Amino acid sequence: MQFLKGVGPALAEKFSAKGLETVEDLLFYPPFRYEDRSRFLPMREFRDGQSGAVLAMVASTRTRPWRKGAGVLFEAELQDDQGGRLVARWYNAKYLASEVVPGLRLALFGKAEYDFQAARVFLAHPEFEVLPEEGDPEAALQMGRIVPVYEAIGKVTTKQIRRLLQRAMQAAGELEEALPTDLVRRFRLPKMAKAIEEVHEPPVDIDIDALNNRRSPAHWRLIFEEFFWLEFGLLRKQREVKRADGIAFQLTEPIREKIKQMLPFKPTAAQKRALKEIALDMAAPHPMNRLLQGDVGSGKTLVAAEAAVIAIENGFQVAMLAPTELLATQHYLSLQKFFKRLGYPVALIVGSQTAREKAQIKKLVAEGLVKLVVGTHALLEKDVEFDRLGLAIIDEQHRFGVLQRLFLRQKGLRPDVLVMTATPIPRTLALTIYGDLDVSVIDEMPPGRKPILTKHFGAGASKTVWELVRSELNQGRQAYIIYPLVDDSEHSPDLKSAQKMFELHQEKHFPEFRVGLMHGQLPASEKEAVMEKFKAHELDVLVSTTVVEVGLDVPNAAVMVIENAEKFGLSQLHQLRGRVGRGAHASYCLLVSAKLNEVSEQRIRAMVESSDGFRLSEADLEIRGPGEFFGTKQSGLPQLRFAHILKDREILEMARGEAKSFIEGQAGTPQMAQAEKYLEERWQRRYGLVQVG
Ligand code: ADP
Ligand code: MG
Which residue, of 12, 140, 142, 609, has the greatest Cβ tally within 10 A? Predict the structure, then answer.
């Protein structure tokens, strides 16, 4: 990137942080909007609600206080060359005073709102650019045509990006056409070079709506292209794994008997189906790479335990990785219970154990005496060695990077991998992100579950909420009450804390009941002790932070109260709600929140309306967008540029189909070799396909 004129080392670093390493990467930096600067809207045509672009001269500016305590307002009086006048207003933007000065020419884009006091419309917080003087060579680039608008990169403005892109396109020269020719012909795709040019320097006569909707032929091609190489890479990886040597576990009649012996209850049809798929996969002489999806409480642990029996009876060891100590401990306890009848030695490795304890367990694991070991990240430490690791089970995929998957795998001889997730991932996304995994779904709840009634309460209704909790406690049920903070914080005076509320609940609301406190800052041994007490019904109420979010299983708990519910994400709320409704009792989830903004209101409405994890995760994805939904880059979400996982689902499915038939139809041809080379050179880095073995 640095050899591009205007890009020094400091800038290159900024670009690199956005994943833009090469000139070619820059060509794939998409505009988020297009502005028709060949036709500006006359100012006098602006009515309330009208949005559009105007070309303006700044007549005057002023800074004045806005509502009391609400900062200042910066206003610019604008005029156009048809005598129109319009005020633009930016809130809390004193800094603009030095930038927007009288006499400047601006291109602005924004929406008009009506100001009742002044009885006229104004532009509210418009985006703007200072335009070059007429006759300036820059003018041709920034004016008089359809102009792409880019998200700024650090301090590099859209205007500068436009300039850089112009240079980048010259520097890149004719772009290689890499999609299979047959595809380009069949879909009548514009050539790569043409598509890139059209996207960054669209001709004036182009359909601007199609551009803005990302549905111009150029956009379509670039979106398709991204998905095609992504799916091509994933499918190829999947094939590779399927061909590699792995363990072929036997599934004999005595082993089936063992599984039956272990089962404490009749598996659901969905559990049976999932196990069947897993067992078949384990029996194949190649490594298994399978995702087990199932809503909270659908009984994934049981299926995992069954898979573990197969591995252990074949003479192998099993590792189970959990995201938190609490969860690892829970798994350890339930697996111990499952395996008691079978006599398998089970162990736990977590960070809080003493070095001596750990060393002892590690020794047993290395000698093969422990058949199943559950653990947190501590399990991934270098000195944890297995005698014969055959199956790795990873709980809560979304919290683990792909690298860790690899790490665990290297501890044994290509063990089979089963990834469990309680955050159901919409199918299209599962294809994109875990396209290299096979998927089993548990889409049925164990019998006898009563639906959970979810209600929303404003802050004023807390009395009603505590009465509801009390009435359940009186019937012998237990309750969770969740807070966003461990302790009160002066930084967030609006948020309640577990520590403070614990005291209040014990003293004021539920004095005759046994109230416990749980949060992440307690020592591990204490967390465990509190959990055990709650499980044993030696506590009636558990006041907690989200540490109880995943995996805890206390069937007698029938009420989940979440205070400051607006502070939690949708999948988090759903996970928390999944802590109740695990027994035969009717259960409640009570969401308490004072203020709701648009997003938190959407989330709470989704919670009240649905308890279907798949629907909720789709909703969550839509509310938050894929980037945030999956957290960081490390989550394995590919860096897509033009393509959008949600909006472009159809193109994704199409690209996957095409990638599949290409792989099947062109195996061994020069076309295939060329495509593979292209994939390796151009796309692997961006898709993070390199790290995974
Ligand atoms: P998940 O991990 O999918 O959230 P769990 O494995 O913790 O769910 O199971 C939730 C609860 O349902 C546990 O108490 C478990 O013992 C119980 N359970 C699982 N499968 C069945 C079944 N087939 N019949 C009855 N109860 C079951
Ligand atoms: Mg679980």
Answer: 142
